[in-house]
Amino acid sequence: MYRKIVSFFEEWKASKHRKPLILQGARQVGKTYSILEFGRNHYENVAYFNFETNPKLNETFDENISPDYLIPILSHIAGQTIVREKTLIVFDEIQLCERALTSLKYFFEDAPDYHIIAAGSLLGVAVNRAKYSFPVGRVDLKTLYPMDIQEFMLGLGEEDLLEQIKYCFENDSPMPSALHDAAIQLYRQYLVVGGMPECVIQFAETKDYILVRHTQDTILAGYLNDMSKYNNLNEIKKTRLVYDNITVQLSKKNTRFQYKLIKKGGRASEFENAIEWLTLSGIVSQVYKVEHIKKPLENYRDIDAFKIYVSDLGLLCAKKDLLANDVLYMVEELNDFKGGMTENYVNTQLTSNGYSTYYWESERGAEIDFIIQRDGQNIPIEVKSADNTRAKSLKVYIDTYKPAYAIKLSTKNFGFEDGKKTVPLYATFCI
């Protein structure tokens, strides 16, 4: 399976200012596979160390973390010579060894010719909960997300269709109707399968939604296990309550997160640590409301008003126990959930492309689903789950802030009219 992260790895390897790289992300998004595949294709050898499967590694780092001391021992453990610039050193599940994380600082300062990529599934949680000496400024950081819809289509062999989509996006020209319909169908398949690499591989090989759902249920069970294993005892129940409640929140017309929907009388003080845990683990992301459309948007976010989206659409459908055919044919019974599910999809694609996402509300209740900064401009994005693209809120926003242009995402074909760029949902990856 091709992952776009490989291009980033190649730039990192070639950079004169390269630092040890930490690749973070939720479990099962393909961190280890992507790193090892890159290492096999771009280095003479790969020295792989996993702190979860080989706990004795910790003892080596407890003794001494200077590169001169570590490299001969690591070479012995790996059974191969670690050579500067020719060997890729991989530290997997590095969150389980604080001293290994600290050692990256000394590799950067004293031995920068060694190429190191470290991976951590719950790194944000571990660093936040423990007294880690994080090597700030001494490492490069990158997050790997589940496969986006472009990677999903590539995994299904749809290279030609992707080229057509990119062309139509750049030129605001409609897709031929047969190709548009085919791409809409792929978009709906992506909603069911999601972007977890194991699920995409299974679907590409078998087209068996039941097999994919079994894998998704296994991943969800692993997430619940992590909530128990890597969490404070008194926070476990709250974290699970919040996670279970997200699908309920997305079914509401107003998808702004409401504590009272978790339990009667629920308050921020009771659940904010649980939300932070889920966010740091990469399982969910928070999208804050911005009070003013000014640069930088981050300065104007309302910390008390936010939405929560999950990191993978397939896991969302599995958690909601939705039937594949109900999503593929968008049956009426899903009407309450379609809007939230579509917003969630758009957020995953924008986040995967590196955008920080926000939303906006007027005093009279007009709402724009997403505001992003694209090419130096604050751009509003209106999301519709079907082809109904009448958007009163977008008109209010345009009249108020006069953006360079606006983006309307729906099932309608490509186009551009009155300063609004119409983009089919399957082409969100192009933004």
From TrEMBL:
Residues of the DUF4143 domain: 225-385
Pfam families the record matches: AAA_14, DUF4143
InterPro entries: AAA_14, DUF4143, P-loop_NTPase
All copies of domain AAA, residue ranges: 18-153
Name of the protein in question: AAA+ superfamily ATPase
Taxonomic classification: Bacteria, Bacillati, Bacillota, Clostridia, Eubacteriales
